[in-house]
Specification:
mainly alpha, 3-stranded mixed β-sheet, single chain, about 45% helix, globular, 6 helices, 3 strands
């Protein structure tokens, strides 16, 4: 994958690099899901209830969007606030432990998100990114944004 800017280097999370993990921390981290999270499931159920059919984690699209509709060239991502750097300029300063790992890790995630957006847009896709908190607080507004886009889609508008 080509990057327009220098790829951020994330240090390996291992004991030799000074990172120490307890069994309790390891168990907590193992519970973090990459797909089928509660916000994703809530968004998908609401979209399905509105009669919109979609694909989940489409492997052939960059970034494997959480929801995609090829017919409308639409990709939707539901991003977790911590992992994708919500309000990053403020939150960056609140990270107290393992700053040498977490700051580059999250900044690299932000960089990857921007690159995936660019790749999808070059393919003619419209990209929606919602924060998990937006889904939790007002899923209907998020779904209405997607439905509004679909209804206004040229050539295939319903």
């Amino acid at each position: 994958m080509e990057y327009k800017e220098d790829k951020i280097k994330v240090p390996r999370f291992e004991e030799e690099a000074g990172f120490y993990t307890t069994k309790k921390r390891s168990r907590i981290m193992s519970k973090i899901r990459a797909k089928d999270t509660k916000p994703e499931m809530r968004f998908r159920r609401a979209l399905w209830a509105r009669g919109i059919r979609y694909r989940v984690n489409a492997k052939r699209l960059p970034g494997k969007p959480d929801v995609s509709i090829l017919k409308y060239k639409l990709a939707v991502f539901i991003d977790g606030e911590f992992w994708h750097g919500y309000d990053w300029d403020v939150k960056r300063e609140t990270i107290k432990s393992n700053r040498g790992f977490w700051i580059p890790k999250i900044e690299r995630n932000i960089q990857k998100d921007q690159e995936v957006n660019r790749q999808l847009q070059e393919m003619g896709f419209t990209v929606f990114r919602f924060w998990a908190g937006e889904i939790k607080n007002d899923v209907n507004t998020c779904v209405n944004d997607v439905v509004g886009y679909i209804k206004s889609y040229p050539y295939l508008a319903r």
